[in-house]
Amino acid sequence: MTHLSDFSYLERTFVYVYLGAYLIYSLAKYDRFESLRPSKIFSGELKSILTILLLLMTLIQATADVTVTYIKYTEGFTAPFGPAGPVMATPYVMWRYDLQMLSDGINYVQCVAFSIETSLFFLVQCFWNYLSNSIVKRGFMSSSEFRFYVVWALCSMALFPVLQWVYRNDELKREVIPQMAYSVETMITSIVGIRNNRRFRRLINSVQKKNAPAVILAKLSYFKIMNNFICLILFLYGSSFFILCVDGLTTKTIAANKFASDVVISNANICVVFYYLLFIMTFHPRRQFNTNTNNDASSFKPSSTGEDVEMNQSRFSQRVNNFIDQRQPNPEPRMNDPVYMRPMTPEELVEEEVHAYSPPPQPSSPPPLRQHPREIAIHDPYSAQPVTFSVINPHGKSSPANVPHFDQGYQ
């Protein structure tokens, strides 16, 4: 796998180093290394297996790229057609024997990296089923399809080293054939992602009809978007390798042009960055999308009684608010407090009692009121006796003694 530009290997070396550092950061911040617990790994939890494969892929691919970078920069460039001819990277046949042996060993290491990556691509399809069971307690695919992806992933692990061994005596095919098989499997997984997008839409519509909480819909929508991006990036990534492999087996038009080959492999390298980040954001997302959060929303089950889940949450929130209001100190004095007395003028009392009075609940029945002609008795909530007002006939004779005072009977 050493026929590409020397700079492409150097670029991928730094890419995998930084991506590996970000993977460890995500494991520490969002997962707290829960996926790396031996109990989860040995129990066969899919999320832990995918995390281990991602770590192994990073380590093996970075090792292969560092080694090839060392070989390419050690051999440097040559002018095989004389000083007046073009300068090119030193071909494999002109390398030192020890570097040729090292390159042959690295080809097998690269095939192991291809095996892990393709297994990871197919197990991601199983991961959607794991997410569906974790979030909404529903299957995303049939058990036979799940087992099919697992078997395909296991077969892919053995495929690439076998291809490398079969074509070990052909300098061209031992590099091109494994890469072509890798690109074809990568594009197949991207096509499978289109089918998963339709499944996500049906699952979201089904959950919406059952009044699922908003957090459930947000999680499903998030992983649906991740699936769409993974599908797109894997197709671009696989097609880049496929173009290079077809060109290598035919006229070698792209391989003969350094700029064209560098453009294609640069596109593949940038796709590596994108799909790696997408895998991290899928396996170890932020905590609001994490499947490790055990709350009522993430363990949503459709209600058999048909009761609205959001209505239950609203009632619970109302009870919490009432509890806080009861415990919160009230800056204004309460009207029913027996020690509370507010001075009021007779005019204020008349206006308040006539226009805006609603009788408060009394612990006992009020005393009987005396009813007289042309008299109005109004209950005073701050006194044990009512306030009585007399109506004066403006056409009749009245003396100052007969004019009632407003404070009469007011205590």
UniProtKB/TrEMBL annotation:
Bias (Polar residues) ranges:
320-329
What residues form the membrane-spanning segments? Answer: 12-28, 49-71, 105-128, 148-167, 179-196, 225-244, 264-283
Q: What is this protein called?
A: Uncharacterized protein
Q: Does the keyword DNA-binding apply?
A: no
Q: What is the lineage of its organism?
A: Eukaryota, Fungi, Fungi incertae sedis, Mucoromycota, Mucoromycotina
The answer to keyword Phosphoprotein applying to this record is no
| Record region (Disordered) | 320-340, 352-411
Q: Which UniProt keywords apply?
A: Membrane, Transmembrane, Transmembrane helix
**Where is composition skewed (Pro residues) in this entry?**
358-370
